[in-house]
């Protein structure tokens, strides 16, 4: 399947999302346990919502970024499958006497397939199955046919994740492909990038304090909650305003550009000014990417891939304001 452009996706698309893992926590103390581990409030997470949450090292650097939601008795953490096992193992080390059990729910029957649906025609297409759609980003609807989570908008239109069984997907996916553009998992990644939502993967673990990837702007950090690993550094970055770095949206006319690659400002060619967080094919022969870098480099606008003589980055408009932290 050839890569699609943002313009094509904006009309309406459906993709089977691959490469995601799912950790399930069961037990009466699951929420309090996670509340003491993650950057966001878990204890007050309602069944009708989802939240972003980060998992940091003691140095305040992100080991993982989650989409998090709950059912009646289970809390789910979605993350890239390539880092699921080590992250799940690390979390399990801290359970101690807490009444909670972590398990791999990636292939659980009710969550076996994840569809990504977005673009202007997405709500109309989904109304064939859902009488009521999630009204705002990070609202969630539980249904006989699965779980529907509205995530951050992209291309000026809503986006949804629909978790379902294989049997449901066998009928739903062809029906949706009759109404929307059939797309690949890479297209979903492109929509995530255009929504400005970063995802920590293998090549970017322990590289970023949450604010470097705009995580508090996306509601992924709660500064009023109690302690968690790295909390002191995350709070200091916020309130002392010493973190003059952000993540922004760019287009790079180089198909080889990938997460973890460094970028350089032409004004300061000797050292990297930032790093690619996520990248996906943009349908035009290159990639669109979220790139973390110094605010000064964003403002100057002359940044290149790999070296100060590399391919130039083309800055695109972010879907939200990059509030600086130089308070």
Your description of this structure?
With 327 residues, the protein is α+β, with helices and mostly antiparallel strands. It folds into 2 domains: 1-243, Gyrase A, domain 2, CATH 3.30.1360; 244-319, Elongation Factor Tu (Ef-tu), domain 3, CATH 2.40.30.110. Helices cover 20% and strands 31% of the residues. It is built from 8 helices and 17 strands. The chain has a 6-stranded mixed β-sheet with strand order 8-9-10-7-1-11. The chain has a 6-stranded antiparallel β-sheet with strand order 16-13-14-15-12-17. The longest helix is centred in the N-terminal third of the chain and has 13 residues, at 81-93. The chain starts with 5 loop residues before the first helix and ends in a 12-residue tail after the last strand. 45% of the residues are buried.
Quick rundown:
The chain has helices at 6-11, 30-35, 81-93, 122-126, 166-177, 185-194, 231-239, 295-300; strands at 13-16, 20-26, 50-56, 62-70, 74-80, 101-104, 113-118, 140-143, 146-154, 157-164, 181-183, 245-252, 262-265, 274-281, 287-294, 303-305, 314-315.
The global form is globular
Average pLDDT reading: 96
Number of domains: 2
CATH architectural group of the largest domain: 2-Layer Sandwich
User: What profile does the largest beta sheet have?
Assistant: 6 strands, mixed
Termini separation comes to: 47 Å
CATH fold label of the largest domain: Gyrase A, domain 2
Task: Bin the helical content.
Answer: 10-25%
Residue stretches low in confidence (pLDDT < 50, at least 5 long) are none
The CATH homologous superfamily of the largest domain is termed Probable tRNA modification gtpase trme, domain 1
Proportion of residues in β-strands: 25-35%
Which CATH class of the largest domain?
Alpha Beta
Query: Can you count the beta strands?
Result: 17
């Amino acid at each position: 399947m050839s890569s699609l452009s943002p313009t094509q996706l904006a009309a309406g698309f459906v993709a089977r999302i691959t490469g995601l893992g799912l950790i399930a926590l069961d037990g009466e103390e699951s929420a309090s346990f996670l509340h003491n581990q993650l950057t966001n409030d878990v204890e007050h997470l309602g069944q009708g919502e989802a939240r972003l949450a980060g998992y940091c090292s003691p140095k305040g650097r992100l080991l993982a970024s989650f989409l998090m939601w709950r059912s009646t008795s289970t809390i789910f953490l979605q993350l890239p499958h390539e880092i699921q096992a080590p992250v799940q193992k690390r979390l399990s080390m801290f359970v101690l006497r807490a009444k909670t059990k972590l398990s791999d729910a990636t292939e659980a029957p009710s969550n076996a397939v994840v569809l990504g649906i977005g673009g202007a025609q997405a709500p109309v297409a989904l109304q064939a199955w859902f009488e009521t759609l999630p009204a705002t980003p990070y609202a969630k609807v539980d249904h006989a046919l699965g779980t529907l989570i509205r995530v951050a908008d992209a291309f000026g239109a809503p986006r949804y994740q629909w978790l379902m069984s294989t049997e449901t997907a066998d009928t739903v996916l062809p029906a949706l492909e009759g109404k929307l553009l059939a797309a690949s998992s890479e297209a979903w990644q492109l929509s995530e990038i255009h929504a400005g939502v970063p995802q920590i993967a293998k090549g970017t673990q322990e590289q970023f304090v949450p604010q470097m990837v705009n995580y508090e702007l996306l509601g992924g950090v709660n500064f009023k909650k109690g302690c968690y690993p790295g909390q002191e550094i995350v709070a200091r970055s916020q309130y002392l305003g010493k973190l003059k770095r952000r993540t922004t949206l760019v287009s790079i006319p180089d198909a080889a550009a990938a997460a973890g690659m460094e970028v350089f400002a032409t004004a300061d060619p000797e050292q990297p000014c930032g790093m690619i967080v996520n990248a996906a094919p943009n349908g035009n022969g290159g990639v669109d990417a979220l790139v973390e870098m110094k605010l000064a480099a964003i403002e100057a606008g002359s940044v290149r891939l790999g070296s100060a003589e590399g391919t130039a980055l083309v800055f695109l408009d972010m879907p939200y304001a990059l509030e600086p932290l130089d308070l």
